[in-house]
Amino acid sequence: MAEPVVLRAAVRAVVPWRNGAGTTTVVAEGPPSSAGSSGPTWPEPTWREPTWREPTWRVSVATIARSAPFSEFAGVDRLLMPLSAAGLDLVVDGRRVHGEALEVLAFAGESAVAAVDVAAEGLDLNLMTRRGSAEGQLRTVEVPTVLELAPHEVVGAVVLSGEARLGNDVLGALDAFLVPGPATVAVAGSGVLAMARISGVADPGS
Question: Strand pairing of 23-29 and 57-64?
Fold first, then answer.
């Protein structure tokens, strides 16, 4: 049974978007699509290396400080959850879309996407999965809760409000945990998690 790994918000490095138009922090990501069945990596994102290879999946928290285009990720499916009360306005392939706070917006990584009419700095949670290699779901879950993971699944959860407890570990706002494989995990506390569930991935050690 896989044990959850606690990922503290305070130790995440702030890194630029691929196009340089904003910044993000990587919560966790899976192996590069060319790297076989090695397990997930955290907290240092492999895409910061000079010999960058696309990860199979990535969970990240981006800062939206101004109206700006998003980076292109061809062959990637993207799910985005605005975390700020005002939500987020996007233009996706010429079509304007408004995402309310905690609503999940889906679009292709090769689409032309831009944040527009940004009046105040905000955050959004992102789940990216490489098409044909993994599939992702993103939703909110209230705690306490019990998470059930089947084989070939990974769950990354980020605390949005309140606190979550995993044994003796107490997680506050934007702290996260990763469960890299089949398991049953009881999460105590009171609050809301954003849960990214990734399926179709190789189990660590397989």
Answer: antiparallel
Asked if domains 8-130 and 135-199 share a fold, the reply is: yes
Angle at 3 between CA 165 and CA 58, to 5 degrees: 90
CATH architecture for the domain at 8-130: Sandwich (2.60)
Q: Which amino acid is at 164?
A: A
Identify the CA nearest to 57 among candidates 203, 198, 204, 206: 198
Domain 135-199 has CATH 2.60.120.10: yes
Summarised one tens digit per residue, pLDDT across range 67-91 is 999 999 999 999 999 999 999 999 9
* Cα separation, 135 vs 2, whole angstroms: 20
Report pLDDT digits (tens) over 114-167. 999 999 999 999 999 999 999 999 999 999 999 999 999 999 999 999 999 999
Helix or strand holding residue 6 (H, E): strand 5-7
Q: Is the CA virtual torsion 97, 130, 10, 67 positive or negative?
A: negative
Beta strands 14-16; 68-69: pairing state: unpaired
Domain locations in the chain as residue ranges: 8-130, 135-199
The letter for the amino acid at 160 is L
The 10 Å Cβ neighbour count of residue 179 is: 23
Cα distance between residue 60 and residue 66, in whole Å: 18
Of 161, 199, 158, give the one whose Cα is nearest residue 182: 199
Per the CB < 8 A criterion, the answer to whether 53 and 72 are in contact is no
